[in-house]
Amino acid sequence: MNAAISSIYAKHRDFWNKNTFVLLATGFGWFLLAILVQHFAYLYVDNHVNGTPVGDIFLSHLPTVNLDFFIVQGALISTLVAIILFIIKPNYLSFSLKSLAFFIIIRSFFISLTHLGVNLHQITLNTNAIGFDVYDFLYNAKNDFFFSGHVGASFLFALIFWKETWWRYLFLAFSVVFGISMLLAHMHYSIDVFAAPFMTYSIFVIAKKVFSHDYKLIS
User: Which of 87, 95, 148, 204 is in Cβ range 3.0-4.6 Å of 214 for a Cys bridge?
Assistant: First the structure.
């Protein structure tokens, strides 16, 4: 344990300097901006959108399965894994913050455009579940359909940690599990799930160009 802590300390000691602190500070700035944008987007779709449920070739043939744990606790677990990775791999932090912020801002724009209604067979999340209040604050909205944040965010981290084989496959697994869970729980339309990786990859490619200095720290 002491050896592991010493190794992490050495990584941070060798990594942080004036330039990396500036990149981190701007990363937090981007992330706070993204949270603010998402907040207003969620307010809009929750309070001003009354969409109509539409047909879906997958949802019409899939049974409704309550996968509350994978949706709520799964999101919190994947978030915790990402935080742990930032602690042990500080060179990933600034680019991850900025690319995630870019992801959140783009997704906030898209969820505000097309107003679909909640699927008639959608499950109801257990508000008494462990960690639900945190999940509800960070991730939950009633009408944030296109595109799936669960699938997209985990896929984004798979792309960010692509060179770290074990972590790449873990986040890809998270993305697949979230996609299956969202469809079986009827909480997203199939287009939201299947489009998420393509939207996320586009966001990632743009983020590499826009935040090139941050990306060089991990490339």
Answer: 95
